[in-house]
Amino acid sequence: MRSAENVAIMGETLAIDVITIFPRMLDGFLNESMLKRAVKQDAVRFRTIDLRDFTHDVHRTTDDKPYGGGPGMLMKPEPLFEAVESIRTPGSRVVLMTPQGRPFRQSIAVELAKEKHLIFVCGHYEGVDERIRLHLATDEISIGDYVLTNGALPAAVVIDAVVRLLPNVLGGDGSTIEESFSSGRLEYPQYTRPSDYRGMKVPDVLMSGNHVEIARWRREQAVARTMERRPDLLEQKE
Ligand SMILES: C[S@@+](CC[C@H](N)C(=O)[O-])C[C@H]1O[C@@H](n2cnc3c(N)ncnc32)[C@H](O)[C@@H]1O
Asked: Measured between alpha carbons, how far is 63 from 50 in angstroms, rounded to an integer?
């Protein structure tokens, strides 16, 4: 069964480019685990692009002082514009990672997993020159209401959430269908062997073999858990 949530076009390779001044922060991450397997399967291809390759001075400068004064340094427009323009195609989504962006959620991961080319722009220092936001980015995404030192980790979070939705990356076992957020609620509780661990027992219904009852129990548990922990999800669904 294929979920409506898992709809990337079969057979297409998603191209992901990350522009950063810290490419090594991502190299290990993009070469491990599920992401490594996704590359082998041609579901995705990654490139990390060192922003300093698009500077024109001996110091390879990517930042400058803000006009009007104030603390810290801002990322200059020239290297970022040139880096994006060197790889952008008409269908590319240029995603600026910023704490001021659209709060990241599963529905945005689903949306991005349908694309062919994603370019992630990672800020650093005090952030980026406003013209990058206004005239270069097609999207702005925040991974939460807190501030990190640079955009590499935020980009990694979004990439992980997107790539695991691509067809067959998780082995086609349907694990993205029922998990938290894909149906507007949290996932039901899960157990594995042993059935009795130090007196902590697995609920009888899960070992009953009655799949109708198991499905009902899981539905009820998912709703109860969502009401208790994240009632806002149920309200959004309604
Ligand atoms: C120190 S932050 C800049 C924060 C900026 N001065 C502000 O107040 O909005 C440096 C960079 O880290 C990244 N970043 C930090 N926190 C983030 C978050 N919550 N979501 C997405 N990106 C974030 C962005 O790329 C940002 O340009």
From this structure: 14
Res 176 pLDDT > 90 = no
- Any ligand 1 atom below 6 A from CB of 62: no
Over range 5-34, report the average pLDDT.
Answer: 84
CB 127 near ligand 1, within 6 Å: yes
Instruction: Report CA 208 to chain centroid distance, whole Å.
Output: 37
Q: CA–CA separation, 132 vs 157, rounded Å? A: 22
127, containing H or E segment: none
Between CA 72 and CA 65 the distance in angstroms is: 7
The CB of 106 under 6 Å from ligand 1? The reply is: no
Residues 117-133 have a mean pLDDT of 98
* β-pair type (14-20, 74-75): unpaired
From ligand 1's centre to the CA of 37, what distance in Å?
30
State the Cα torsion 149-155-161-166 to the nearest 10°.
Answer: -170
What is the C-alpha to C-alpha distance for residues 36 and 39, in angstroms, rounded to an integer? 5
Backbone φ and ψ of 123, nearest 5°: -85, 175
Dig out the tokens for 198 from the structure: 């130090």
In whole angstroms, give the CA distance from residue 137 to residue 59. 26
* DSSP bridge pairs for 128: 75
- The pTM of this model reads 0.92
pLDDT at position 4 over 50: no
DSSP 91: T
Mean pLDDT of 118-133: 98
Q: Is the CB of 126 under 6 A from ligand 1?
A: yes
List, in order, residues 6 or more apart from 9 with CB less than 8 Å away: 114
